[in-house]
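Aim 2 progress update. The chain analyzed this quarter is reproduced below.
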Amino acid sequence: MQKKIKKNIKIQNQLKEKNNPKPRVKEKVGKDYLLIAVIAFTLMITITAWSTLTNLNRALYTLLLVSLSLTYIRRHANLTEQQETWVDRGSIVSMGFALAVFAVVMYYQIFS
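Predicted structure tokens:
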């Protein structure tokens, strides 16, 4: 009889755990000095060389800056899960576009 009671209590505890999911706890994130330095460097290059860059290079640096900024925002802002998902997707998409533009720039520089 005691075994059945213990088993029932164990099952009830498991059901309580399933019904009451633990709140999502974000890990503490470091200061990301390197990421801030890369964002600042990219912004500095983009601003100072804007008049000498081609349109493709401007797009490349702008997309890279957007991707890095979204990465920083994702790591440090207090976002909901849905907002975090959208920011993460935006970062990945802008990085993908930046890589595609980089491939086009390299093609024009090598074969032109």
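Residues 29-111 form one domain. The chain has a mean pLDDT of 86. These observations will guide the mutagenesis experiments scheduled for the next reporting period.
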